[in-house]
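Appendix B. Raw example, untouched.
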Amino acid sequence: MSQFPHDRLNKNLFELWLSPFGEIKTQRPMDSETTFIDIYFVPSKSIPPAAHLGLLAQCVGNQAVAFEPYRNPVKIDEIRGCIIKALEIQQEVCPESPSYATFKPRMWIITPTLAKHKLTKVGAVEAEAVWGKGIYLLPEALQTGIIIIHQLPVIPETRWFRLMGKGTVQRAAMAEVAALPVGHLDRDNILDLLISYTIELAAKQNVTPENQELVMQLSPLYLERLEEARLQGLTEGEQLGELKGYQDFVLRQLDRHIGKLSIDLEAQIRKLPLEQLELLGDEISSFNRMTDLLTWVQRNS
């Protein structure tokens, strides 16, 4: 998976949703040393309805499954590559193809849009009657399905895939997450990931108009999460709790933006007064490397 902000967002979202139910790997190597699967998940237990994963849980079923998300419309050559990976997975996990009451692909290609003639060329057929609108299945022997994000119905069951879309589709899904009740586990965890995504986008030198719109939409959420952290802290013990709420939030964003912090560096940041911590939160998007953070901490400690 390439190291673009949207690729990291997709990886983090899959880890958030599926890690409670099994083993999830990113950049899983195939037999070919230069070939990887973006997201590979092996369930260790069934995903309960209470997990609210909707279509994602349906795509997993009770089997090892791979996901290849694309930011732009997937190309025919890329679909061919995904089919090869799907067949290789099938040979690894079960040489003889099992019989399913409902065919469940082992490879899901996730794309914002896809032209009809490309679907025809790869033999993909819409499976709306069983899977819902926007889901296409290739011939069963190929073990591959295609999810066209922008064709999915706007319902809670498809929200997690729509977060990986583009333009108005992605922004609408983000607004749905923000509208969930404060304290809702999905809302808080996903908003933290989206805020990290915003920080990465804002730090890029050449921000596309599409990404600029995302930054504008998500920036208020960053301030909202900081305020929520402050209020949560107040309920945990007035000023001390307020400081801890900020500390935890800012440290999570730093971990996601520039990598895991050392124990010593985390301890230095936790020693910062609340005013300095607020300033650090505002400056996260300006850090490109760990040395940038180290320099800031040394200058402000």
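End of appendix B.
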